[in-house]
Design goal:
The protein is α/β, with parallel strands linked by helices and about 550 residues long. Among the domains are: about 5-10 and about 25-215, Rossmann fold (3-Layer(aba) Sandwich); about 365-440, Luciferase, domain 3 (Roll); about 445-555, ANL, C-terminal domain (GMP Synthetase, Chain A, domain 3, 2-Layer Sandwich). Helices cover about 35% and strands about 25% of the residues.
Length: about 550
Amino acid sequence: MNIALLHEAIANNIPDQPCIIFRDKTFSWRQVTDRTRRLATLFKQHGLGCHRERTELQNWESGQDHVGLYLYNGNEYLEGILGCFKSRTAPFNVNYRYVEEELTYLFDNAEAKAIVFHAQFAERLAAIKHQLPQVKLWLQVADDSGAPLMEGALDYESALASVDPEPPASGLSDDDLYMVYTGGTTGMPKGVLWRQYDLFYSSLIKGNQITTIDEIVESVVKHHAHKAPPIGLPSPPLMHATAQWIAMSLWVMGGTVVMQSKPESFDADDIWQCVEKHRVNSLTIVGDAFAVPLLKQLDKQSYDLSSLRILASGGAILSPVKKQEIFDKLPKVTILDALGSSETGTQASQLLKKGENITTGDFAMKDGCVVLKQDFSGFLLAGSEDVGWAARSGYVPLGYYRDEAKTKKTFPEINGVRYSVPGDRAMAKADGGMKLLGRDSVTINTGGEKVFAEEVEQALKNHNQVFDVVVVGTQSERWGQQVTALVKATVVDSAEVFESELKAIAKKHIAGYKVPKKFVFLDEIVRAPSGKPDYRWAKQTAEAMLASESEKQSA
C-alpha cells in the first residue's frame, strides 16, 4: 500500500478527472502525476532518496531523506507529499507560525535535506540558512507577497519545468515513511514516523478488507462509471495531519481535493463560496473554532450548499450546541465527529444525523482501539467507572524520530502487543464505545481531584453566549490548582451575572469540583491555525490577568 504507487495506478485509469482544485486552477490526475514525477526527479537529482531499508533500522530511526513543507494550503503542498513519496523521501509538516529559533530547532531535529516554502517565508529562512548546512535544496513557491527569490533557492515552477517527469524511484515500499511533527503543545515538537502501510489502514480507508492496489483501482473505476467522484474540502491547514489524511483518503476514492482560495487565515465566506462553486460533498473543520465563524457567516449570507452531505470535525471539541445549530441550518448534513492524533491516526468516530441524540465526546471505536487500565495491566471492562488510557494497537506508528525513550513510553508493548498511548484519558462505555475525557497533559489537579480541561470546556459551551472557551489550571494556595476558564463571549451586560449563569449551566453537566472557580473574559482566544487550543498561552494569560486583578484588590 505505497501511496505513490496507488496514486499512479488510479491516475492511469482516470487521467482526465480533476485531482486538485485551487483558486482558478484545476489539475487533472494526469497533470498531478506529471508535476509530482518532476518534483521527484528534482529531489533525486539532488541526491535525495532512501539510503537504508526499514529492516536495518530501529523504530525511532529513518533511512530516508526528509523534506520540510513550509507552505500554506495549495496544490504545491499536496504535490510535495506525493513528490516525496515518489522519490522515497519523507515529507514533514512545518508550522508556518514558528519564529526563527523554532524553525532552526525543527529543521535540525528533522535533519531536513530539502525545504519547499512559500516566498513570504524567504526572509525568515534567509536569516537561519547559515545554521542549516545539511539542506541541499531550497524550493521557493511564488505567492502574492512579491518577495524575491531567496539566494541559493530555486523557483518551484521553473525547477519543475527544467526536469523530466521520470517514473517513481525503484524499490518503492509500503515501509516507506510518512513523517508528521506534533505541535509541541506539551514539549518540543516530535516527528512521528509512520509506515505508509500503517497510515493507509489507520486513516485513509474504512476497514481492512481491501488488500491490493488493484482492488482499490477496480473500486474507483466502478464508482466513476455510475456516480460522480467525491469532492472534499479539508479546511484546516495542511500542516495539520488531519487535513493531509482527508486529502489522501479522497484520492484513495479517486476523488477531488478542493483548496480554499484564501489559505493564510480562516475565511468563512471563502470556505462557503468554495463549497458552492465546486459542489463540495464533504467539508472538514476543527471543532467549534471553525464551526462558529462558519455558522455566523450563514446568518449574513445565503449560499447554495445542496451538494454538502458530510461535515467532518476533528482535533477539537464540536459542542452539542454547535451540532444542533449545524442541523438547524444544514438539515441534510451528516456530522462526522472524529477522534485521532498524530500518534494513533483516526481512532474513533461518531456519526450523527438530524433528529438523533446529540452528544460530544462519545465515540464508536475502530478495530484495535481500546481503553487501557491506569497501570497498563489490561483493559477496562465496558461500563466500568474507572478512568483509563485511550489506546490503539495494530496500525500504529513506528515511533518518534531520534527519540528512543519517548518512543518506548508512547508505544509500549503490553503482553506482546505494541500500542499507541498518546496521553488521552477515557472511559469504556457500556455499549462498547468510549467516552473521551481529555489529554492527560492538560489535566488539572485541584484539591487532589483530577479535572480534564476538555470536559469542562464542553460543559461551558452549552451556554449559547459562549463564543469560545479554553480551560486551564492556575495556582491556588488552597487547592494547589484551581480550574480557570478563559471565555470569549457574545455581548454580555453583566460579567457577574454571566459568570453565575456559566457556573449554573456547568453544574448540569459536571460535578461541582470541576466547575471553574475563576473566569477570565477576553475579546479573543488564541488558538493554533489548526484550531487546537494553545494551552501554554492560555495558562500564561490567565495567571497574568488573575495576578493583576489580585494586585488591584490589594491596593
